[in-house]
Amino acid sequence: MVKSEDKIKKAQLQIPVKNIKIHQPNQVETYQPRDQIYVRKVSGIFQLLRQRMNFFFLALFALLPWLRYNDHQAILFDIAEQRFTLWGLTLWPQDLTLLAWLCILSAFLLFFVTTFLGRVWCGYLCPQTVWTFIFIWFEEKIEGTANQRKKLDSRQLDFDKFWRKALKHTCWLFFSILTALTFVGYFAPVDEVFINFFTFQASFALAATVWFFAFCTYGNAGWMREIMCLHMCPYARFQSAMFDKDTLTVSYDFNRGENRGARSRKIAHESLELGDCIDCNLCVQVCPTGIDIRNGLQYECINCGACVDACDGVMDKMNYPKGLIRYTTEHELQGKKVHFIRSKLVGYAIVLVVMCSLLVLEIVNRAPVTMDIIRDRNELAKEKFNGDIENVYTLKILNKSQTDNVYRLSVKGIENTKWHGEQEVMVKAAAVYTLPMSLSVDPYELKGYMTDISFVIELVSEEDDVSLEHESRFFNKR
């Protein structure tokens, strides 16, 4: 009896052993990081909406750099000149607060939309998604449907496969170069970018930048595709922090769809104890990230609605009601009341309104001209031959407007000040004018070693009344 109990205890203490496959030298093992996804073409209202939106914003992206305003490129982020031009607004490094406001505003707008409509940004407007679908369109036109592309990849290389692959990658590369040139055209004069690149007169920096962005576009949309969404995009990771049970997401109605199973359209599926899902897997075949939406909400889902259109088409053929897969909320699937207006959404809306108001207010109150005053550091003050005390300055006048303006300069704070230099200067649009000048004063007008003064700049115009004061100091000889 004791021996049998000891055997049982030893058996319980044994470490479980798992049989593994022993590697044979003649076997070839390959590592496949992912299965190739052959996205099947689908038509429907959401895909039509996505295509129209993609076309509109793609056309906007391509045309905006070519628009002209007041004889200059309407939108130009000139990093070399440290000057951003947006139609009639010119932003300089001193105006980076406006750019910060714009970035914060965009972030909260994204939070608001995500809380309400889920990841519609990813499915309808994200450049990665837009360019991926464009590249898939080239595949469909050159290599055929998803099944034809799969068969083409599985067979040996022949002339038909070679010319189709070569033409596809040529189209991808050409479209990537056009994309890169257009993108660089936002940061340099777009006409010069295209002319210099295609005439081989571009500088090394310009050519390298274009090829870098072309390579990124070709690699991301042509090869990586869903890898960018699944493993590299941070938005997919923190989106859950913005979701709640009233967020509209693409979801599968489990209660209506289960149990799954194939059936004939002539037989009532209720008699077979089957749900509306016929397990055709079309929702998986049309998904650009290759997920099965029937497994529930997943971070890989980009809310593009392709599975919704595919499932609605099947429901039409089976004479079932649409909406087995649809844009819905977790509360609606549970039969609970949906709250579209809720505290989180209202909070985001209030923040958006406040920030938009502050941004508009800052733009309206933005000074159209600024002036920097640089003193002569070698000698703060010197005495002239007639006994006057002289201070030397360098004025940098920045014209932030889009028109050439004439400005009148003066100084106040000390009586009987003598101005040596130009007092009326013409500054070109969105340019900086450097003016060396000096002030001299009778020492009897000075009450101490240092006197506060103000330089005044006024716009010489009958229409506008612009005046700006900038404080400085006037030093006396010790």
Automatic annotation (TrEMBL):
<feature type="domain" description="4Fe-4S ferredoxin-type">
    <location>
        <begin position="268"/>
        <end position="296"/>
    </location>
</feature>
<protein>
    <submittedName>
        <fullName>Cytochrome c oxidase accessory protein CcoG</fullName>
    </submittedName>
</protein>
<dbReference type="InterPro" id="IPR032879">
    <property type="entry name" value="FixG_C"/>
</dbReference>
<keyword id="KW-0408">Iron</keyword>
<feature type="transmembrane region" description="Helical">
    <location>
        <begin position="98"/>
        <end position="118"/>
    </location>
</feature>
<keyword id="KW-0411">Iron-sulfur</keyword>
<dbReference type="InterPro" id="IPR051684">
    <property type="entry name" value="Electron_Trans/Redox"/>
</dbReference>
<dbReference type="GO" id="GO:0005886">
    <property type="term" value="C:plasma membrane"/>
</dbReference>
<dbReference type="Pfam" id="PF13746">
    <property type="entry name" value="Fer4_18"/>
</dbReference>
<dbReference type="InterPro" id="IPR009051">
    <property type="entry name" value="Helical_ferredxn"/>
</dbReference>
<keyword id="KW-1133">Transmembrane helix</keyword>
<feature type="transmembrane region" description="Helical">
    <location>
        <begin position="194"/>
        <end position="218"/>
    </location>
</feature>
<dbReference type="InterPro" id="IPR017896">
    <property type="entry name" value="4Fe4S_Fe-S-bd"/>
</dbReference>
<keyword id="KW-0249">Electron transport</keyword>
<keyword id="KW-0004">4Fe-4S</keyword>
<keyword id="KW-0479">Metal-binding</keyword>
<dbReference type="GO" id="GO:0051539">
    <property type="term" value="F:4 iron, 4 sulfur cluster binding"/>
</dbReference>
<dbReference type="InterPro" id="IPR013783">
    <property type="entry name" value="Ig-like_fold"/>
</dbReference>
<feature type="transmembrane region" description="Helical">
    <location>
        <begin position="53"/>
        <end position="69"/>
    </location>
</feature>
<keyword id="KW-0472">Membrane</keyword>
<dbReference type="Pfam" id="PF12801">
    <property type="entry name" value="Fer4_5"/>
</dbReference>
<feature type="transmembrane region" description="Helical">
    <location>
        <begin position="345"/>
        <end position="364"/>
    </location>
</feature>
<dbReference type="GO" id="GO:0046872">
    <property type="term" value="F:metal ion binding"/>
</dbReference>
<dbReference type="InterPro" id="IPR017900">
    <property type="entry name" value="4Fe4S_Fe_S_CS"/>
</dbReference>
<dbReference type="Pfam" id="PF11614">
    <property type="entry name" value="FixG_C"/>
</dbReference>
<keyword id="KW-0812">Transmembrane</keyword>
<keyword id="KW-0813">Transport</keyword>
<dbReference type="InterPro" id="IPR014116">
    <property type="entry name" value="Cyt_c_oxidase_cbb3_FixG"/>
</dbReference>
<feature type="transmembrane region" description="Helical">
    <location>
        <begin position="171"/>
        <end position="188"/>
    </location>
</feature>
